[in-house]
Specification:
Layout lengths: L11 H7 L14 E6 L2 E8 L8 E6 L11 H8 L5 E6 L11 H5 L2 H17 L5 E6 L1 H11 L8 E5 L14 H5 L6 E8 L2 H5 L1 H17 L15 H6 L4 E10 L6 H15 L9
Parallel strand pairs: 3-4, 3-5, 5-6, 6-7, 7-8
Antiparallel strand pairs: 1-2, 2-4
Length: 286
């Protein structure tokens, strides 16, 4: 199956003008642009420190397929607003693929490199004394993040936010099939999407919810609460019965996959959820 519709077309011309061939974004402050090394592969990222004075942790942001780390709309809003509320952000350049005739099988092969980039980002945060880390993905970036978390990764991630998490229910063996990944997770998850989102995002809503809640129920039954043991919902009677362990699914009415005019509201929901479910404070900063 070709990945038609996977490349976000929002601001395509402007973004192309801003992006250099090495993936660096030229329309950002120079001090935000960093180059990281993933097992010998250099890639670009944008780092913005906490500006609130009350640090809560770090957020790794994965943009959509073939999008740069300051992609217009949700990615830009998240990476620039979260620091005002205690979350340093590190937005990553993911591996890029040709727009023509790319298949899900092609992108499946990128999971090891995506995993290395996430783990490199975790180490970068750790080097700055930031240990409370959330992972946020948009579009295919969200599906990739879920696939990474489901792969038995070793990097400590405290919470996961999937925005417009792609479903691809005709490729259920792919690690991009988000319900398959969510079924394996045992950490707080926010699943947020627009009511007019991509068809596969909407079609997989029920499957994503059922998978995540079953995973939570399994964890509760095994008393393996892990990262979400101190969350607001982890100890509720409803959670114990239904396996809702810190899983929240939110639909933004009238929003499409770009969340035009809804970015600020979406970011507020993400900030509120992170404060509730991953609100630890990292004291050491350098």
């Amino acid at each position: 199956m070709a990945l038609e519709g996977l490349v976000n077309t929002h601001g395509r011309a402007a973004a192309a003008a801003e992006q250099q061939s090495d993936g660096a974004v030229t329309g950002t402050d120079a001090h935000e642009r960093i180059s990281l090394d993933s097992n010998g592969v250099r890639f670009q990222a944008l780092y913005r420190p906490d500006t609130s004075g009350s640090p809560r942790g770090g957020a790794i942001i994965l943009p959509p397929l073939n999008a740069h780390p300051d992609w217009p709309g949700v990615v830009h809003q998240l990476r620039t607003t979260l620091p005002e509320f205690g979350w340093a952000t590190l937005s990553l350049q993911l591996p890029t693929l040709s727009n023509a005739a790319v298949t899900i099988a092609d992108y499946d092969q990128e999971l090891p490199e995506i995993a290395r980039r996430i783990e490199t980002a975790v180490r970068y945060f750790n080097s700055k004394g930031i240990g409370n880390i959330a992972l946020i993905g948009k579009g295919v970036g969200a599906s990739a993040a879920a696939g990474y978390l489901a792969s038995g990764q070793s990097a400590p991630i405290q919470a996961f936010v999937g925005i417009s998490m792609r479903g691809f229910d005709d490729n259920k063996d792919s690690w991009l099939y988000s319900p398959r990944s969510l079924r394996k997770l045992s950490l707080p998850v926010l699943d947020i999407y627009g009511s007019l989102d991509y068809r596969d995002v909407i079609n997989s809503v029920k499957a994503r919810g059922m998978a995540a809640r079953q995973a939570g129920l399994d964890s509760a039954n095994r008393i393996r609460l892990g990262a979400f043991q101190n969350s607001a919902t982890a100890e509720s009677a409803q959670t114990r019965r239904a396996g809702y362990i810190a899983y929240r699914q939110i639909s933004l009415s009238g929003a499409d996959e770009h969340f035009n005019s809804s970015e600020s509201y979406l970011v507020k929901r993400v900030i509120g959820w992170l404060k509730q479910h991953a609100g630890g404070i990292t004291i050491s900063q350098r």
